[in-house]
Design brief:
GO cellular component, one term: cytoplasm
Shape: flat
CATH topology of the largest domain: Dbl Homology Domain, Chain A
CATH architecture of the largest domain: Up-down Bundle
Distance between the termini: 88 Å
Keywords: Guanine-nucleotide releasing factor, Phosphoprotein
Protein name: MCF.2 cell line derived transforming sequence a
Family: Belongs to the MCF2 family.
CATH class of the largest domain: Mainly Alpha
Strand content: 5-15%
GO biological process, one term: dendrite development
Structural class: alpha/beta
Number of strands: 14
């Protein structure tokens, strides 16, 4: 039996409207829904429809009404309407007349064919596609078709419900709140797994139902319905596969989160910090043998406990490596914990070994001192018991000498090694610093010997030294005493010459300081002359009528871009700063105050450096201009204008180098603090210039960036963002990988930007920074040290609602600069708020910045020289 209707030509679907006296009573909305449903059952694109309207027992009025409703309600591609007209003579005649007059109205809307009998249907439709009521052979049962369609629609609704259930469960999993409680996570794992199993069972049940329906369709028909069921089953399988993959990832992350909680708990339960505190409390200042033995006993107990704890730490480290090898999502955090444990274990182990070695050496020293003291007491007792009267005879003297020699042979090992061995041991403990001092003394002596050659008074050497009357002072027994006198003589000679060499060293330092000062003034004069040469030889020549033909008009209007504010810089240096420096020629200690007094004037370099990028772009556009070639020829310069436009930037970096040299030769002298302040000011200026040049590349900031104040500092960092107070969500678990952010610290805010790839070619490459976050300084706090990693610090915002963990890329110099700048900014803002309440205004001094320079003053020059002007 066929469960679907027939097909006409071009596989058009046949829709039969049998005799129905109540057809006119069907609401239009219901009729439209029926037609719409019938048209969506075929799944082929562009399918056509043929309607057979059986009205053999009806009237022309009914036919006309039915055709009008079909034209208004049928939504499909209507290919043909076949109408079986009434069979009675009267109604057939009326129908023919009515159709003749109304044919054009119907034909404009749809093709209508009026048939006289069922036999006429065979001209349009094959008899195999017609049911028995129309004289065909198609075996079709409409009630069975309704049952089949009901089953298919029910299956489709069930599949849709399953999809909604899966989506709701997936949303529930994604929005799961993860608390720092292992039992809660275990409960979530169990409950989520139960829900997953129930949904899987529902999916299997629906799949089984769908396969049963498909087998029923395969056994009864070969139409479109089996294809529709196959499509639904395919969608169900795809949903099941996607759901399995999603839940597998969710279950894995939840399980890994539970592993992380347990690992953190085991990490926190270790007592390494307590052991390190006990080790620090174990003082090394022991003065007696019992104290040393007691300290060794405590150290042994502490070492026993430390071995047990460090063994547990090794197990935790091994477990952490296993988790990392399993591609745990928090691999970075786990490896950080492993590194912390390893660092603490190494620190504790080295500290215990160092103290044990120190205590053992102290114990051995105290034992040796005790033996030496006993031996000395015995020696004094021996000498006191020897009678002087017995020394008068040869035999008595020999016996006393023999007793002393025997006593010396029984001396402790540390006293029997001799003076030469003691001297070697003394040389072995000379530190590298003492060696450097001795080398400097040697150099100064050679320098002094070239200029001063004092006359040496030599006393005549006696032929025979005086003999001692007592055997105790014979040459054999006087060796130690002679060596001591020799050492004292050498020390006395050194003390006498120390003052003379010290004066020479001061003279040498003064000469070097004057030399640096002369270099500073001479290079300043050359710098002023070069600026004047550029302004007269290039900038002023742009107004020369004789060269106007060589100069492009657009370049004349942009000379302020090409030269920047070089005239302002020249006026400052030629009229003010050069005279100030020349006034310090005979008093180099005053140059620091000179720089500090003119510190604000140097801010003009900031605008020059910011304009340098536009100036370079303009120069590259017109560098081959005949005007520049002619000016260079007149000036007899070997280098082009672009080299001289770099002079202000080069001069700015030269100042801090010369100040460093002056500071090196002015230690602990008058004006040292001013020199240090001047160096700090120039370093800050260099960094401020560099930072402001980066600022112009920020994109995406909607407000006025000038309202944030000056750029105090900037740099690239690795940043982790977390929300400490709120619960962690599954969507945030992927944030264990750090983000690379470029931070700009302003007076009123901290901007977090993302550095974009440089664009351009060659010298045209410039970085850009996409704005991401803005933190107001009034709500920013700092935690300097993140446990276990000296390169990290925290920036927290709005009472730790947002926490940014920042890590420097290389050395701690960047971290020190940034932390000090953040502290200084917070202090300024808070002081400003407090003073605003009482109506007082004030400013902060540069103490913090000077302290910052003092902290990093000992670092290598390469680390500080990276804070130079961006060119």
């Amino acid at each position: 039996m066929q469960d679907f209707g027939g097909r006409g030509e071009d596989s058009s679907v046949i829709v039969t409207l049998p005799e129905c006296s109540a057809f006119s009573d069907i609401p239009d909305e219901a009729l439209t829904k029926v037609f719409t449903y019938l048209t969506v059952i075929p799944r082929q694109p562009g399918v056509k429809f043929i309607i057979i309207l059986d009205r053999r027992l009806d009237t022309w009025a009914s036919i006309k009404t039915a055709l009008a409703r079909i034209a208004a309600s049928f939504p499909g591609n209507l290919h043909l309407v076949l109408v079986l007209r009434p069979t009675s003579f009267f109604h057939r005649t009326v129908t023919d007349i009515g159709f003749r007059f109304s044919q054009e109205d119907f034909m404009l809307k749809m093709p209508v064919v009026l048939l006289s009998s069922v036999t006429d249907l065979l001209r349009y439709i094959d008899e195999n596609q017609l049911t028995s009521e129309f004289g065909g052979t198609l075996d079709y049962c409409h009630s069975d078709w309704i049952v089949l369609r009901t089953a298919i629609e029910s299956f489709a609704v069930t599949v849709k419900d399953i999809a909604q259930m899966l989506q709701a469960f997936g949303t529930e999993l994604a929005e799961t709140e993860l608390l720092d409680d292992g039992k809660t996570i275990e409960y979530l794992l169990e409950s989520h797994t139960d829900k997953y199993n129930k949904l899987k069972e529902a999916i299997r049940s629906v799949s089984k139902e769908g396969r049963h329906l498909l087998s029923s369709l395969d056994s009864t028909s070969k139409g479109d319905d089996p294809q529709w069921d196959v499509k639904l089953l395919g969608q169900l399988r795809d949903m099941e596969a996607a759901f399995d993959g999603f839940f597998e990832k969710h279950h894995l992350k939840l399980h890994q989160y539970l592993q992380l909680l347990r690992y953190e708990k085991s990490f926190q339960e270790l007592c390494l910090d307590h052991l390190l505190a006990q080790e620090r409390e174990l003082h090394t200042s022991v003065n007696t043998l019992p104290q040393t033995e007691q300290a060794l006993k405590k150290l042994d107990g502490l070492e026993s406990n430390a071995k047990e704890v460090m063994a547990r730490a090794q197990i935790i480290i091994l477990h952490g490596h296993q988790l990392s090898a399993g591609h745990h999502y928090a691999m970075a955090l786990i490896m950080q914990r492993c590194n912390e444990l390893r660092h603490h274990c190494d620190t504790l182990s080295v500290a215990l070994k160092t103290k044990q070695s120190l205590f053992l050496q102290t114990h051995q020293l105290l034992l040796s001192l005790g033996l030496a003291q006993t031996w000395c007491d015995d020696g004094a007792y021996l000498l006191a018991n020897q009678l002087v009267d017995k020394f008068q005879s040869k035999e008595g003297a020999q016996a006393a000498l023999k007793d002393i020699e025997k006593f010396l042979e029984e001396a402790p090992s540390m006293l029997s090694s001799g003076v030469d061995v003691l001297m070697i041991e003394y040389e072995a403990v000379i530190t590298p610093h003492l060696q450097m001092i001795q080398n400097r003394q040697t150099s100064l002596r050679k320098l002094a010997d070239k200029h001063v050659r004092p006359v040496q008074l030599v006393a005549p050497r006696p032929e025979n030294p005086p003999r001692s009357k007592s055997p105790l002072f014979s040459p054999k027994h006087g060796t130690v005493h002679t060596q001591i006198l020799y050492i004292n003589a050498i020390s006395s000679l050194k003390n006498k010459n120390r003052h003379r060499y010290g004066d020479l060293a001061d003279l040498f330092i003064s000469m070097r300081s004057n030399h640096v000062m002369r270099e500073l003034i001479e290079t300043e004069r050359i710098y002023v002359e070069e600026l004047l040469c550029v302004l007269l030889g290039y900038r002023a020549e742009m107004d020369n009528a004789e060269l106007s033909g060589l100069l492009p008009p657009i370049l004349r209007s942009k000379r302020d871009i090409l030269f920047g504010n070089m005239p302002e810089i020249y006026n400052f240096h030629s009229r003010v700063f050069l005279q100030d420096l020349e006034g310090c020629l005979e008093a180099p200690e005053g140059v620091g105050a000179c720089f500090l007094q003119r510190k604000e004037c140097f801010q003009m370099y900031e605008w020059y450096c910011q304009n340098k990028l536009r100036s370079e772009a303009l120069w590259r556009q017109f560098c081959d201009c005949d005007f520049f070639q002619e000016c260079q020829k007149k000036l007899e310069h070997k280098l082009g204008l672009d080299s001289y436009l770099l002079k202000p930037i080069q001069r700015l970096t030269k100042y801090q180098l010369l100040l460093k040299e002056l500071l090196k030769y002015s230690a602990d002298s008058e004006g040292t603090s001013d020199l240090q302040g001047a160096l700090t000011a120039m370093l800050d200026l260099l960094k401020s210039v560099n930072d402001s040049m980066h600022q112009i590349s920020i994109t995406g900031y909607e407000g006025d960036i000038c309202e944030l104040g000056r750029v105090l500092m900037q740099g690239s960092f690795s940043v982790w963002i977390s929300h400490k107070k709120g619960p962690t969500r599954m969507k945030e678990l992927a944030r264990f990988k750090p983000m690379q952010r470029h931070l700009f610290l302003y007076e009123k805010a901290l901007l977090l930007c993302k550095r974009r790839e440089e664009h351009g070619e060659g010298a045209d490459k410039t970085p850009s920074y996409s704005f991401k976050h803005c933190l107001k300084m009034t709500a920013v706090g700092i935690t300097e040290n993140v446990k276990g990693d000296g390169k990290k610090f925290e920036i927290w915002y709005s009472g730790r609602e947002e926490v940014y963990v920042v890590q420097v890329r290389s050395t701690n110099i960047e971290r020190i600069f940034f932390l000090k700048g953040m502290k200084l900014k917070n202090l300024k803002i808070r002081d400003g708020q407090n003073l605003k309440r009482v109506g007082v205004r004030t400013t902060l001094t540069g103490i913090q910045l000077i302290q910052l320079t003092d902290e990093i003053k000992g670092s290598k020059n390469k680390q500080l020289e990276k804070y130079t002007v961006y060119t």
